[in-house]
Every structure is written in C-alpha cells, then in structure tokens.
Amino acid sequence: MRVETARVFFGIAAALATPWGADWHRTRPASTVLFVGLYGAYGIAPYVGEGRAWSAWAAAVLVAVGSVLFLRIPGASAFGFSLSFPLTTGPGRATRRAGMALVSFAVLMGLWTAGGRTKVLSAEFVLSDRVSVFLSALLLAVFGGGALASLATASVRAEVDALPPGQERDRALDFMSGSRTIGLLERGLLFAFIGAGQPEAAALVLAAKSLARVPTNDHGKHASEYFLIGTLASVIASLAMGMAARSAVGLPTF
Question: Where do the structural domains in the chain lie, given as residue ranges?
Fold first, then answer.
C-alpha cells in the first residue's frame, strides 16, 4: 500500500471510527457529521486535486449521515437545520430506510473510488488459502470457543439459578452478566496474538483480564468457579485454533 493510499484510507477510517466509538451517532448527530467532514478533509488534504480523493470523502460523509439517520434515538439533539422527507431526523421506519439507503450508496461509491485495486485485493482475499485458514480458525476460536465455554460453565450457572433469591445469587449473576462480550474479545485477542506467533502478548491479555475482572469474596464461590472455568475454556479454544492454523499453513507452532 502506497503512503498516499494509506493516508487516505486511515484518515477516512479514523474519521468514521472516532464518532462511532464515542456513540455520537445516537446523541450528537451534528458533531458526528462535522467531525467526519473535517477530519476526512484533513485526510485527503494533499490530494484535493484528485477526484477519487473527494469521492472517498463524500462516501465517508454519506456513511456518517446514514448512520445518524439509522441509529439516532428519539430525544437526541437535532442536526441544527431542518431536513425534509425522506431525510427526516425523527423516529420511524422512513428514517431508518433513508439511513440504510445512504450507507448502501456510500459503500458503492467507496468501491468505485477504489477502482481496480478493490478487485485485485478482493480476489487475493478470497483466493488466499492462508487468509481462509486464519479467518476460519478465528471464527472457530471466538464463537466455537464461546460454545465450549458455555458448555463448561453450564453446571455453575445451574447452581446459581438454583440459589434462593438474595445477595449471593444477585452478585453472582451480576458478575456473569458481562461475560459473553468479554469472552468474545478475550478469545479474539488471544487468537490474534497466538496466530501471530506472540504467546507472550497473549499472556498479557490474561493478566489484564485477571486484574480488571477477577471476582472478589463478595461475588461468592460460584463467580470464582465461573471465571476460572470460562477463562480456561477460552484459552484452550484460542490456543488450539491458533496452533492448528499456523501448522496448517506451514508456520512453526511456536
């Protein structure tokens, strides 16, 4: 990837990701569109004389507007100006359809902007055996590992459900409530580091999880058992899939 292409790509991606991560699409629509427009313009600044750069910028702005229309919640601040149908900012199916249409059009515009490079990269991505192996192994580790973790912790969950209503049951359930999302991220990171041949970095993921999420005495023994069994299941799935993927493509396991 040339530096020029990289600047435009990362600039547009950052312009879209920043307000998305801050959840501005739902609560601050005007700030979302303004930020995407300004930072996107910064990303293409050296190439304002090229039509494809402006096409990429326009696609990003359309994605921002479409996301605002599709995700905006009732009661959030308005754009700061009036929009007539079908680009209404009120709740309803028409708004969501308009948002989806804008995002779809922006995706098509982005594909046109990339031109022949998209076809080449897409062909390489689809036909690459290594990409296919690692992508499939990632899905197996993240989602298959989730099924393994759920199966392994089923007995603990059954014990918690059987507890009488009270603080012990409530605290255990509270601890387990966010486990699914955390488990997905955990297995994804573990697989990424193991697949990259960096098991030391994978160990840091476990250390960070232990510091941030380790159950205390207040959560009870069921939460501790759930944490330990779930973590071990995630490690086994990620380690097995990471090593299998590396071995399948001819890389040393470690």
Answer: 3-125, 128-248
